[in-house]
Design a protein that fits this description.
By secondary structure, the protein is of the alpha+beta class. Helices cover about 20% and strands about 25% of the residues. It is built from 5 helices and 13 strands. A hairpin with a 2-residue loop joins strand 1 and strand 2. The longest helix has 18 residues.
């Protein structure tokens, strides 16, 4: 028989995972996307067909401009190590990585991308809470991302967040520009309405 004598046991702290350990995990059996937030794994459900299509439209338009203008590489759901100890790995729906952040101007074949992207795009899903969205935005901006887009189907708009605290709403009739993406070259244009067609 065990006796307690009024002493309570302290809760056992769950060990925090590193980005390297996180990278070695298998994919979740139910699919979806995983991120590492403050050393703990967060799993997201697979997205809807429309969400995936919107990601594709944004990726395709950004890539068509970024590659010939040497602005960077464009990824879909690639992992970025934004912070160490505790490790923070976010996987934006779409991201642009400046060439200056990439050794030999190439994305890594294995492992996550170290450091922030130039642009992080989050396509807001029906099940995303406003708190979740703003937490991701804060993680990006606090760790060096120059622009964050929150693509909102409900209002058919894109909200752009800047490191200086500025927030810009681009409605369905508007167009996203080079400055909105953080590009150095002028000429990028993405009609917001085209994302939702």
């Amino acid at each position: 028989m065990l006796y307690n004598f009024g002493m309570t046991s302290a809760p056992v702290a769950e060990p925090l995972m590193t980005a390297e350990e996180f990278y070695l995990l298998p994919d979740p059996p139910e699919g979806g996307k995983m991120e590492l937030v403050c050393g703990k794994v967060v799993t997201h459900m697979p997205v809807s067909g429309k969400h995936g299509e919107r990601q594709g439209i944004i990726w395709q338009t950004l890539r068509a401009f970024a590659i010939p203008h040497n602005e960077g590489r464009v990824t879909v759901e690639a992992g970025f190590i934004l912070h160490d100890d505790p490790d923070l790995v976010r996987a934006p729906d779409v991201a642009v990585v400046a060439l200056s952040r990439l050794p030999d101007e190439q994305l890594p074949e294995d492992g996550f991308i170290s450091g922030p992207p130039l642009l992080a795009v989050e396509v807001v899903s029906k099940g995303d809470t406003e708190r979740d969205v703003l937490e991701k935005v804060a993680d990006y901006l606090d760790n060096g991302v120059a622009r964050v887009w929150a693509v909102r189907a409900k209002t058919r708009s894109v909200v752009i967040y800047y490191p200086n605290g500025e927030v810009k709403l681009v409605p369905s009739g508007g167009t996203l520009t080079s400055d909105d993406a953080g590009f150095t070259n002028d000429g990028f244009a993405l009609a917001v309405a085209s994302i939702f067609e």
